[in-house]
Design goal:
Layout (H helix, E strand, L loop, with lengths): L6 E4 L23 H17 L3 E4 L16 E4 L2 E4 L5 H4 L2 H10 L3 E3 L13 E4 L2 E6 L5 H11 L3 E5 L12 E3 L4 E4 L6 H10 L2 E4 L2 H5 L6 E3 L2 E4 L4 H9 L3 E4 L3 H4 L10 E2 L10
Parallel strand pairs: 1-2, 4-5, 7-8, 10-11, 13-14
Antiparallel strand pairs: 1-15, 3-4, 6-7, 9-10, 12-13
The structure holds arginine.
Length: about 280
């Protein structure tokens, strides 16, 4: 089987800023330092390329400050991209741009189930054969089951209970088919039990490091990239044989995002059994 190059979609932060408040991290009173954000974004892109990834760019759009968070554009399954249907009106204008890019790139683009909110790879992550689906704060549980039916995959819905961890990718990160990073306090009891039952090895992060977006990691092969401020997680991952990299992303934390949110893996996440 030919080795494929990891392929990631990013969007330059030319128009990134805090123009509205749709999660508890965001405050219009705490603005982004744009040059600093550009510097941090470029450093992340360089690191991903150093890990062997090819990065494609979604053109930035004036008036869509959160378009940088490409993880939310869609969920990728083989040649299918299930488009996001954002809960907040402020982000709904992103969808036509994501759609046009994904179609141009050759994906079969399908809409999220009618009448349900769905925030793409921010809330839908494959670990092995299973699609883990965060719901309640941004995406709807019903829509997630329909997405699972559409692609013929079992879905494990996970209820998110902490507004600071409003997307699944802020509190859960599959590393391989059997290993994942998580922050248990972000989930309800049933979700915690479901994760413990379905993922062989869960690596727990502390509240402190979770708030530094430790779980919002990008996995490329055996490399794991995160924001700075996650030394405990990095030590645990090093023990498991991963190569870790920390890169400052504080400007993006101001919007409630970090490394993983800034990327959409187009060829399938490392942990997805289907790839
Ligand atoms: N400000 C954005 C929002 O609240 C941040 C999105 C972060 N993306 C993610 N995949 N967690 O929607």
């Amino acid at each position: 089987m030919p080795a494929t190059v990891p392929h990631i979609l990013m969007c330059p932060p030319d128009y990134y800023g805090i123009e509205y408040e749709i999660n508890p991290w965001m405050s219009r009173g705490r603005q982004v330092d744009r040059p600093q954000a550009i510097e941090q974004w470029r450093a992340l892109k360089r690191l991903l390329e150093k890990c062997g990834a090819r990065v494609s760019l979604l053109p930035p759009v004036d008036g869509l400050p959160d378009l940088v968070f490409t993880a939310n554009a869609a969920m990728i399954y083989q040649h299918t991209a299930v488009l996001a249907n954002f809960r907040h009106q402020q982000r709904q204008g992103e969808t036509p741009h994501a759609r046009a890019w994904l179609q141009g790139a050759g994906f079969d683009v399908v809409l999220a189930p009618t009448g349900t909110c769905f925030e793409g790879a921010g809330d839908a992550l494959f670990c092995g054969e299973t699609l883990f689906a965060g719901y309640r704060i941004r995406s709807d549980a019903r829509g997630m089951q329909q997405v699972g039916q559409l692609i013929g995959t079992r879905v494990i819905p996970l209820e998110l209970v902490d507004p600071y961890f409003y997307h699944l990718d802020t509190c859960f990160c599959p590393l391989s088919a059997t290993q994942a990073i998580w922050h248990p306090a972000a989930f309800d009891t049933y979700a915690r039990q479901a994760l413990a039952a379905h993922v062989e090895q869960l690596i727990e992060v502390s509240e402190d490091e979770a708030r530094s977006f430790a779980c919002n990691a990008v996995v490329v092969g055996r490399n794991v990239l995160t924001n700075t401020g996650c030394p405990g997680l990095h030590a645990a991952l090093t023990d498991l044989g991963y190569t870790t990299q920390a890169t400052p992303l504080a400007e993006f934390v101001k919007a409630g995002g970090s490394a993983k949110c800034l990327t959409l893996r187009l060829d399938g996440e490392e942990a997805a059994a289907w790839k």
